[in-house]
Amino acid sequence: MSGGVIGRRGLIGGGVVGATGLLLGGCDRVVQAPATRRILFMGEEMQMGLQRALMDRDALAPEYRPEQRSPIFRANGTRDPATPLYEALRAGNFADWRLIVGGLVARPLALSLADLGAMPQRAQITRHDCVEGWSAVGKWQGPRLGDVLRAGGLRDAARFIVFTCADLYGGKPYYESIDLVDAFHPQTILAWALNDRFLPVQNGAPCRLRVERQLGYKHAKYLMRIDAVASLDGIGKGKGGYWEDNVDYDWYAGI
């Protein structure tokens, strides 16, 4: 399997305009200014009520031409998990890596990179908007998450998809979640390639989520597990993601 050219469209450099005085060094920094926090992270009631009700969640994110891609695609969050397990997988070029698909599925899966590459592929050139205050455009390639979930036989009770990652925060794996609307959106893919090459470590090798209608912290990197669940209760502190649980980021980060 190789990172062949599949997409069309590209990147547009540029930054996300932040609130006055906002300067974030990384997604692992807590926004200190109360006014900034109110602007960036409005309450769950606002996000999950008005925004989700008013937005057309089936709409596509803009896609760009190849020549519009950013010259450098920055890394958000973790740059390298650097755990013994990850280092062992990396040393073997991820030949032994498997993406576990479980939870409320009829047929649990253990997918290799070759398995992901053998599935129908989608390539898209889209813009990544990060709460750090930057954006970049790159070409991503991989199978649609919806196709993977169909292969596993999603059960009727499933309502959310939870992603567990190789990088550790506070000694525990990073985690995120989305609902089924985003999971089956045509632009939500499990990307194994960036700009026609296998993902670099800093960008989430060997596989990351791309959920193009949401902010960057929802795009979980270094994927190890995908679980279909009926509720977010019992996932971390119950808000659906590491940043949501610990820094009050909104669970729904639609853009």
Description:
The chain is of the alpha+beta class and 255 residues long. The protein has 7 helices and 11 strands. The protein has helices at residues 34-40, 44-54, 84-91, 113-118, 145-152, 180-183, 242-247, and strands spanning 99-103, 109-111, 122-129, 135-142, 160-169, 172-179, 188-191, 193-194, 197-198, 208-211, 223-229. Strands 2-1-11-5-6 form a 5-stranded mixed sheet. It has a 4-stranded antiparallel sheet with strand order 3-4-8-9, with no helix packed on it.
Bulk shape: globular
What separation lies between the terminal Cα atoms? 33 Å
Q: State the share of residues found in helices, binned by percent.
A: 10-25%
Our estimate of the beta-strand percent is 15-25%
Query: How much is the radius of gyration in Å?
Result: 17 Å
CATH topology: Sulfite Oxidase, Chain A, domain 2
**How many separate domains?**
1
Record the strand order, biggest sheet.
Answer: 2-1-11-5-6
| CATH architecture assignment name | Alpha-Beta Complex
**Biggest sheet overview:** 5 strands, mixed
Order of helices and strands: HHHEEHEEHEEHEEEEEH
